[in-house]
TrEMBL record:
It comes from Capsicum baccatum. Keywords: Cytoplasm, Protein transport, Repeat, Transport. SUPFAM superfamilies: ARM repeat (SSF48371). One of its GO terms (cellular component) is cytoplasm. Pfam families: Importin_rep_6. InterPro entries: ARM-like, ARM-type_fold, Importin_beta, Importin_rep_6. It is found in: Cytoplasm. Its main location: cytoplasm. GO terms for biological process: protein import into nucleus. This is TOG domain-containing protein.
Length: 539
């Protein structure tokens, strides 16, 4: 890194422009590789050098200029909030490069389209998807400035736009700019993205723009008004329809007489981009749901006719995305989501036995949430839920690594049903089944939850968990031992582990010796010795 910074700092002559651009590119790659924390100090030093470039003159048609801008975008993301310190000084140099570029003969290129948005002018080159993807926006300090950037990295656009919005937000928070400034900039960016999305017909670029939209909404989401929400939702509907149309055309291409293996590979890549569009729609909707909570419900209603058919899609990524959206709704606003229970829950239950582990896992997570928040609304589905959960638990490959997290979600869902819908089940039969599934270790969040609930049930000597004449105590002791001595320390909280030890110590002191002796029967010799030592009277 010191050598790269030295090259960057000393390469002032026109003959060194390419060398300087390559140094910037290498620095940005290193920054991405080592992570933001390690790179932050170097990134700030690099930005100081970039600021010093203001007086330099670059060749208008020099491609190294665009290499510099691409690397600059990566560094902006790495230094995050520190960008605010340099943005006003660095932008003039970047804008100068842009103006030089478009004063060249390239503007005579008929493949470049000029788009006017407000006071800003955007240039878009139609023949290269990656060039089209690069966002163009106004300088935060001067909205009339014309800015164009070309990128070889698909994610650069989201990094730049999000960084600019974040710098504006920080400027307002630190009193450097007024709140109206950030609102104006965010309105401009969101509108530009919506308009660009509407015109875009290349799947690769469409999914990049959707990712950019989501990243920007994470920063300025609370400022979005109802009218803008309508625009965003309408555009998402348009994006879904256009993607479906393109996929139909892809299917038709497979029926042509000259369709071969090479064409099949091309189609597979294009289909993957279309699937990624649906994923991006899902993450955008999750962001909106997380921001507006129940207030977003009317807008989601408009999308139901587009989203529900995805549940039956033959692509796991599409099925997962539809579940992801609805589960996000139950997660963020459980009470409001109850109105969809009759529609969503049967679909979720069907997907709990999906062939894809991720689809299965997230569907089971949705069942967990509905069991927890559904109350009487969930009651009619309890029997079917138990049946589907049993299929997951009894599958012969349930404990394969790829299936473990789905298994753990099923155990957690069963736990919630046992605790919250006990009157709807044969608890004396179901709770011991749940106990025999423990401990779980793949999904640490669920592991903490179920192990804590088990401890609570034993503390209160729940009749169904203890069993007649403490018949389930050996299994309980075995589970407690595995949790307390687990190599995976996060399978329980420290508090839960300490409570387990206290419960066992109390049982040892109050139960007949013969009962406790039988309780050690499930343990290996070394486990029994260690646990007995731990339970010995405190000195």
């Amino acid at each position: 890194m010191p050598h790269l910074k030295a090259i960057l700092r000393d390469a002032h002559l026109k003959s060194d422009l390419i060398l300087r651009a390559r140094a910037m590119e290498c620095i940005s790659i290193v920054g991405k590789a080592v992570g933001k924390e390690k790179f932050r100090d170097d990134g700030k030093q690099v930005m100081e050098v970039v600021v010093s470039f203001q007086g330099l003159q670059a060749k208008a048609d020099d491609p190294s200029t665009w290499d510099m801008l691409t690397a600059f975008a990566v560094i902006c993301e790495c230094i995050e909030q520190e960008l605010l310190t340099y943005i006003s000084a660095a932008m003039p140099f970047l804008i100068q490069c842009v103006k030089l570029h478009f004063e060249s003969d390239e503007l005579d290129d008929t493949s470049i389209e000029t788009i006017k948005i407000g006071d800003a002018i955007l240039w878009k080159k139609d023949d290269d998807p990656k060039e089209k993807a690069k966002a163009c926006c106004s300088d935060p300090c001067a909205t009339s400035a014309n800015l164009y950037a070309q990128s070889r990295q698909e994610t650069d656009v989201s990094e730049v736009m999000a960084a600019l919005l974040l710098s504006a937000k920080l400027a307002v928070e630190k009193g450097i700019a007024e709140g109206a400034y950030f609102k104006e900039l965010s309105d401009h960016v969101i509108l530009a993205l919506i308009e660009a999305l509407h015109k875009e017909h290349v799947a690769e670029i469409c999914q990049i723009m959707l990712k950019e939209l989501k990243n920007c909404l994470l920063i300025c989401g609370p400022l979005i008004d109802e009218g803008q929400l309508h625009q965003i939702v309408d555009e998402l509907k348009h994006v879904i329809k256009e993607s479906l149309n393109r996929k139909r055309k892809l299917t038709e291409r497979t029926k042509s007489e000259d369709f071969d293996d090479e064409e099949a590979k091309v189609l597979a890549d294009e289909e993957a981009q279309e699937d990624l569009i649906i994923v991006r729609v899902g993450t955008t909707l999750k962001t909106l749901i997380g921001t507006f909570k129940a207030a977003f419900m009317p807008f989601l209603d408009e999308l139901l006719s587009y989203l529900i058919p995805m549940w039956g899609n033959d692509k796991p990524t599409v099925r997962f995305t539809s579940i992801y959206i609805f589960v996000s709704l139950v997660e963020e606003c459980p009470e409001a989501a109850l109105k969809y229970c009759d529609v969503f829950l049967p679909l979720l239950l069907d997907e709990t036995i999906d062939e894809d582990p991720m689809v299965r896992q997230y569907a089971l997570y949705g069942v967990c949430l509905y069991a927890e928040s559904g109350g009487s609304v969930f009651m009619p589905f309890v029997r079917e839920a138990l049946s589907r959960i049993n299929v997951v638990l009894m599958h012969f490959q349930a404990h394969e690594p790829v299936n473990e997290e789905a298994y753990d979600k099923a155990v957690s869902a069963l736990c919630k049903i046992c605790l919250l819908h006990r009157e709807s089940i044969d608890s004396a039969q179901v709770i011991p089944i749940w106990l025999n599934c423990l401990p779980i270790k793949a999904d640490l969040h669920e592991a903490k939850y179920v192990h804590d609930e088990l401890c609570s049930m034993v503390e209160r000597l729940d009749r169904d968990i203890i069993g007649h004449n403490y018949q389930y105590l050996p299994k309980i002791v075995s589970v407690f031992a595995e949790v307390v001595f687990s190599d995976e320390k996060d399978v329980s909280t420290e508090e839960t582990a300490n409570r387990m030890i206290s419960v066992l110590r109390h049982l040892q002191q109050t139960l007949p010796p013969a009962t406790m002796e039988s309780a050690w029967s499930y343990l290996l010799p070394h486990q029994e010795m260690t646990l007995k030592s731990l339970l010995s009277p405190e000195v």
